[in-house]
């Protein structure tokens, strides 16, 4: 349900047309396309919605222009027109027969302003603005890319994207969508670097580090039961420049650390606040996972325009009691060390570790922070100007917290998360104290 400007309730109804396949505009390579172990590691669907307000141009030709541009951009990005299969060695690989991406046109029963707040995930409402393959039980039964253009009564429209994360990380997704929108405006974007074998596992494998990101932590606090017993609430919390500065000051006020970044201070705060909100036992180990962009950290650096996942999960593990009894600087220092740990040899060791064990990171008693603060999705312009707003439809796992940049100068951060109702109440109170 959504509230419009006169406070009456509007229920979003969307009438979807029949899905069609959009093929690359010219013949593309028919091949099996390699995915690295960093791609294998995050094989989950991810849905985002972009809202474009009405303009003098109207929305009558929006779907056709976006569709035509998609057909063109699927030439340099031809693997996006393929489908996931399992290779002979049991890994995900892309079959590229050039079938195309799924495209759906839809009509909404209201104005775009009636959708409400796009800065928080809302699967019930926003889920109607993306196309989900009926009956798909896993990612092998889903298209790599499904596009839905929904026209609203006011002349605005939304672009809903459903993509599989193993095809691209946030930076790569942003480059793809922006190249697509440039194509719609008649520009010629820079082609991507497609060769993912540069991140292939070594032969023989060389595991040089202990990769605690894969550790299974025992759920001594029975948080699993809390998630099962209570309603999960999704909320967003805005941290403006003043709040971020205050957290940075708290992270250094005891003199232990000389400086800390906004990311380190905010991550430290939310890790501690979530741990307290979930009432974790003092001897409960809690794990923090977050992605570090490896593009500049690999030796040699990853080529510009790399098409694929170049992020590596780093980690910190700490007992809940230690986390909460120590000052904020203690947590900031843990995060700082986790970032510094990510070197070329660490990342290649992680790639080899996945090759040997085939493990995926465990999320028990874990917080996974994913940050979109450096991603310029707000610049995406298909010819109707920059989006009114953009955001995720839902969070991929209950353990995920998302950082999104906010405001005209992108100096604020929106923190999006879902928690059991009682835990959300505590978390909200802790945010109010900052």
TrEMBL record:
It holds the Pfam family Transferase. Keywords: Acyltransferase, Transferase. The keyword Transferase applies. Transmembrane segments: none annotated. One of its GO terms (molecular function) is acyltransferase activity, transferring groups other than amino-acyl groups. InterPro entries: CAT-like_dom_sf, Plant_Fungal_Acyltransferase. Belongs to the plant acyltransferase family. This is Omega-hydroxypalmitate O-feruloyl transferase.
């Amino acid at each position: 349900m959504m509230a419009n400007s006169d406070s009456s309730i509007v229920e979003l109804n969307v009438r979807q047309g029949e899905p069609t396949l959009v093929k690359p505009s010219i013949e593309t390579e028919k091949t099996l396309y390699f995915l690295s172990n960093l791609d294998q590691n995050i094989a989950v669907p991810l849905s985002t919605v972009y809202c474009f307000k009405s303009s003098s141009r109207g929305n009558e030709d929006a779907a056709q222009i976006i569709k035509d541009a998609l057909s063109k951009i699927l030439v340099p990005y031809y693997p996006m027109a393929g489908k996931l299969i399992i290779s002979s060695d049991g890994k995900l690989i892309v079959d590229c027969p050039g079938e195309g991406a799924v495209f759906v046109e839809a009509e909404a029963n209201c104005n775009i302003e009636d959708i409400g707040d796009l800065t928080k995930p809302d699967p019930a409402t926003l889920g109607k603005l993306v196309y989900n393959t009926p009956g798909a039980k896993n990612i092998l039964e889903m298209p790599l890319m499904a596009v839905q253009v929904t026209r609203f009564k006011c002349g605005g429209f939304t672009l809903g994207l459903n993509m599989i994360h193993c095809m691209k990380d946030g930076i790569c997704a942003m480059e793809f969508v922006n190249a697509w929108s440039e194509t719609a405006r008649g520009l010629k974007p820079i082609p991507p670097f497609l060769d993912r074998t540069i991140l292939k596992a070594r032969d023989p494998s060389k595991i040089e580090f202990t990769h605690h990101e894969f550790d299974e932590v025992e759920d001594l606090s029975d948080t699993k039961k809390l998630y099962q017993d209570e309603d999960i609430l999704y909320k967003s919390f805005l941290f403006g420049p003043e709040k971020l500065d205050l957290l940075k000051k708290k992270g250094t006020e005891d003199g232990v650390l000389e400086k800390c970044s906004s990311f380190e201070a905010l991550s430290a705060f939310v890790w501690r606040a979530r741990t307290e909100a979930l009432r974790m036992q003092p001897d409960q180990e809690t794990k923090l996972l977050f992605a570090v962009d490896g593009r500049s950290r690999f030796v040699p650096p990853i080529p510009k325009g790399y098409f694929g996942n170049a992020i590596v999960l780093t980690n910190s593990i700490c007992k809940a009691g230690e986390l909460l009894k120590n000052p904020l600087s203690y947590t900031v220092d843990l995060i700082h060390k986790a970032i510094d740990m990510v070197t070329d040899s660490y990342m290649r060791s992680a790639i080899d570790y996945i090759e040997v064990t085939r493990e995926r990171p465990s999320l028990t008693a874990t917080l996974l922070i994913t940050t979109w603060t450096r991603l310029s999705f707000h610049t995406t312009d298909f010819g109707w100007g920059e989006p009114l707003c953009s955001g995720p439809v839902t969070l991929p796992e209950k353990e995920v917290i998302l950082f999104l940049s906010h405001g005209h100068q992108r100096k604020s951060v929106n923190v999006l998360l879902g928690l059991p109702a009682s835990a959300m109440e505590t978390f909200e109170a802790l945010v109010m104290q900052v």
